[in-house]
């Protein structure tokens, strides 16, 4: 699907170092807020194509960690779970798990209650910027994801492309 949106850069688009897992905002509101606090930064109107999104849910800034179980090896999945553990336990879902299993830590739940563990949400932008997840999404044929922005920007839709070379510059805008 062909999409248009906005990227904020600290230098002209052609000189910018885009992330290998790049967020493009659907609407200009969040980029405008970012530029207000960083007046030297630029808003770039761009187009991009995402043909096989991993997730297409513009209302949710999270992705359940269990969505990655099939694309990662068991060792990689466990490593991601351990590295992102602090984020996984700062969720309402973790609180619900703790009500059912009050004496168990994250990795005990991982091993003993995998179906419950798999429901733990991770910020989508954090997940897609994790090297292990990013690499295996590419290997599995996914080229992006559509989700909501996190934090105070919700419910803003973002297009998360795993191929920044597909982003085409349209124009620089001023606010």
pLDDT averaged over residues: 94
Strand order of the largest sheet: 2-8-7-4
Indicate the structural class: alpha+beta
Q: Indicate the percent of residues in helices.
A: 25-40%
User: What number of domains?
Assistant: 2
Q: H/E element string?
A: EEHEEEHHHHHEHHEEE
Shape: elongated
| Oligomer classification | single chain
Tell me the radius of gyration. Answer: 18 Å
Number of helices: 8
- N-C termini distance: 28 Å
Low-confidence stretches: none
Strand content: 25-35%
Largest sheet: 4 strands, mixed
Verbal overview:
This protein is of the alpha+beta class. It has 2 domains: 91 residues, no CATH class; 65 residues, no CATH class. The chain is 33% helix and 27% strand. The strands form 3 sheets. Strands 2-8-7-4 form a 4-stranded mixed sheet. The chain has a 3-stranded antiparallel sheet with strand order 1-3-9, with helices on one face. The protein has a two-stranded antiparallel ribbon with strand order 5-6. It is elongated and about 55 Å long.
Topology (elements, then pairings):
Layout: E1 2-9, E2 22-25, H1 29-37, E3 42-49, E4 53-57, E5 62-64, H2 74-83, H3 85-88, H4 92-100, H5 106-112, H6 114-117, E6 121-123, H7 124-128, H8 131-139, E7 144-148, E8 157-161, E9 168-173
Parallel strand pairs: 4-7
Antiparallel strand pairs: 1-3, 2-8, 3-9, 5-6, 7-8
Provide keyphrases for this structure.
single chain; 3-stranded antiparallel beta sheet; 4-stranded mixed beta sheet; 8 helices; elongated; alpha+beta
Structure summarized in a few sentences:
The chain has two domains: 2-59 and 141-173, no CATH class; 62-126, no CATH class. 33% of the residues lie in helices and 27% in strands. The chain contains eight helices and nine strands.
């Amino acid at each position: 699907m062909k999409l248009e949106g906005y990227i904020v850069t600290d230098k002209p688009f052609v000189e910018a170092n885009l992330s290998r897992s790049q967020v493009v905002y659907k609407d200009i509101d969040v980029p405008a807020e970012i530029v207000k606090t960083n007046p030297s930064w630029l808003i770039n109107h761009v187009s991009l194509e995402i043909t096989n999104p991993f997730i297409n849910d513009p209302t949710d800034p999270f992705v359940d960690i269990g969505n990655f179980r099939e694309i990662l090896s068991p060792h990689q999945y466990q490593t991601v779970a351990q590295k992102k553990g602090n984020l996984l336990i700062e969720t309402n879902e973790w609180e619900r798990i703790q009500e059912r299993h009050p004496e168990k830590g994250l990795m005990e739940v991982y091993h003993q209650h995998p179906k419950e563990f798999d429901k733990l949400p991770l910020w989508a932008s954090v997940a897609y910027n994790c090297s292990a997840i990013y690499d295996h999404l590419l290997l599995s044929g996914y080229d992006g994801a559509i989700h909501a922005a996190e934090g105070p920007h919700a419910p803003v839709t973002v297009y998360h492309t795993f191929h920044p070379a597909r982003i085409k510059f349209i124009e620089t805008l001023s606010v």
